[in-house]
Please model this.
Amino acid sequence: MTVLRDVRYGFRILARNPSYAAAALAVMALGIGASTAVFTVVRAVLLQPLPYREPDRLVLFRADAPGFERYPGITGNEFHALRERTDLFEDVAAINHDDVR
Model:
């Protein structure tokens, strides 16, 4: 019964101060929205598995070249050589990513 009385008292106070009530609702809405956004990002990045059949078998090749440390890239000849090694890899794919400035 005390909780119901406290809730009624809270509504009466908020009804007397509408600007305070609006500010309180705005802060709660921002908090809920921020929590939802953070959870959505955490869920998408950390909790859901990668959309591949066996993600622990994925391999990323990185090349060290002058001016490019740990650059994710290989030459065309290296790519074709890896593709021919069917005893090592089930399949080989490449992505060309270039920053346009």
